[in-house]
Write a structure and sequence with these properties.
Helix content: 25-40%
Shape: globular
Number of helices: 7
Oligomer: single chain
Radius of gyration: 17 Å
Number of strands: 7
Strand order of the largest sheet: 3-2-1-4-5-6-7
Order of helices and strands: EHEEHEHEHHEHHE
Largest sheet: 7 strands, parallel
Distance between the termini: 37 Å
Structural class: alpha/beta
């Protein structure tokens, strides 16, 4: 059986992705903290700081012990409270860039040799915020989370660069841009208000994003690369 790496796989969307891939792969969940629930059968955990190149290399080495690496889904990211750009601390900006953008680069770079061997697939998780420039359903002068939006937009560009470079090796790279998804990142008391403004009338479920990630890594998407799949209930359409 082949192996799939899922970063940020201990909670929320990442946990749903890890559980979905566990049905078809051995899964290495790479995160700073272990999942609160029991690991799926055939899964393992690797405590991984994605901003550390050596940790990313060790993550790939650990995954190789589970089987040939056929899929990598990079879901790990951080956010911060809304703050107007003119008041955004430089240290906070740098930290979000380090985790969300540099971390994506380091994970991808570490995984490329293994994916070349299997002609595998990679998915980098971006966000609807990357499309519109604000991390909410409305723009607000109180703060757009500009660092989060900018890094997630850069992830989309990174997906395309990777797709171009790795196409000759038959490695596919795609992106996934979720909208408002049920989970701890959005307080539950806000779900009903948000749902009323989403064309499909509800927030997305982590399991739906997991299915999208699984599809992009599967043979069903064998002619899809460099694509960003938007899963947002209709709040942004291209």
């Amino acid at each position: 059986m082949t192996c799939a790496i899922v970063t940020g796989g201990a909670s929320n969307i990442g946990w749903a992705i890890a559980r979905r891939f566990a049905a078809t792969h051995r899964v290495l969940i790479a995160d700073l903290h272990e999942p609160a629930a029991a690991l799926p059968q055939g899964a393992a955990f690797s405590r991984t700081d994605i901003t550390d190149p050596l940790a990313c290399a060790a993550m790939v080495d650990r995954a190789r012990t589970l089987g040939p690496i056929a899929a990598v889904v990079h879901s790990a990211a951080i956010t911060a409270p809304p703050t107007p750009i003119e008041h955004l601390p430089v240290d906070e900006w740098r930290r979000v860039v380090e985790v969300n953008l540099t971390g994506a680069f380091l994970v991808a770079r570490a995984a490329i040799p293994a994916l070349r061997e299997t002609r595998g697939a990679m998915v980098l998780v971006s966000s609807r915020a990357a499309r519109v420039g604000y991390a909410a359903l409305d723009a607000s002068p109180d703060g757009t989370k500009a660092h989060y939006c900018a890094t997630k937009a850069a992830v989309i560009s990174l997906v395309r660069s990777l797709a171009v470079e790795l196409a000759p090796a038959h490695v596919r790279v795609n992106g996934l841009a979720p909208g408002s998804i049920e989970g701890t990142m959005i307080p539950k008391e806000r779900w009903a208000t948000l749902a009323a403004r989403i064309p499909l009338g509800r927030l997305g479920r982590p399991e739906e994003i997991a299915e999208a990630a699984w599809f992009l890594c599967s043979d069903a998407a064998s002619y899809v690369t460099g694509h960003i799949l938007d899963a947002n209930g209709g709040t942004w359409m291209n």
